Amino acid sequence: MNSFSKSKNLILESSITKTNITRIIQFIIGCFIVALSYNIFIAPNDLVPGGVGGIAVIVNNLFNIQNSTTIFILNILLLILSYFLLGKEKTKASILGSIIFPVFVKLTEHANIWIQIDTSKVLLSAIFGGIMFGFGAGLIFKAGFTTGGTDIINQIISKYANISMGKSMLCSDGLIVLSSGLFFGFNSMLYSIMILYSISLMADKVMLGISDNKMFYIITEKEDEIKDFILKYLHHGVTIFKAKGGYKRKSENVLMTVLPTKDFYKLKEGIKEIDEEAFFIVTDSYELFGGE
Predict the structure, then answer these.
(1) Residues 269-274, mean pLDDT to the nearest whole number
(2) CATH architecture of residue range(s) 213-285
(3) pTM of the full structure
(4) Which of 149, 172, 189, 242 is deepest in the core (most CB within 10 A)?
(5) DSSP classification of residue 229
């Protein structure tokens, strides 16, 4: 029994080690892609996508200091600030990204010489730069890392101002992007907002994936008819669980089913046809495991 337990532990440890190595490789690839996007599309056009990278673009314009140098110095200062305000454990999570990212920015600073792309079309640069940056950022976040920088500021604001991370991100990155209008003009600020939105959208897609399935939560008076429609016509499973309304405090059943996106319209119209008074919620389902 002990031998079996030790064997299981060794297998588990081996699996965790492989997972950690995969995560680190994914993180490094993500940092490289973000740095490449930054040096090919963003920095040459004086676009400010928030974060310390955005601050570096402004500093470079004012004082002609290399972007990688500014990013590195700011990241180190923010790590020190994080140590005193957030503690050792949270600071540990930001160390690797705070060092690796500026190194990649330095290594790829002449990327626009290696990869010949006409960056005079600022709109195209903003679109493709945002998509590429967001793809790399998504890989980093999915691996469980960050690039440090304003992620530390966001945590500090969230902790001491007692607001959500989303609002703190809006405060920090929003102010950096808006400040680009003062240094590079209103058009540059609009392009920077476009980049910030593209980064957010693409990062979410990489982390969550593209939804191939929809999940329905259905409350209806015609429970058996809708259940039979899903089971016999659409050939998908149904889970039934008890729920209680918060207002009327009435107990009722909720039907839950997950089905391919191609069947979304069939079920939606089927529910309406069977029970016009039915209440249902539809959400994206990104991953589905098990079942038949």
Answers:
(1) 89
(2) 2-Layer Sandwich (3.30)
(3) 0.75
(4) 149
(5) I
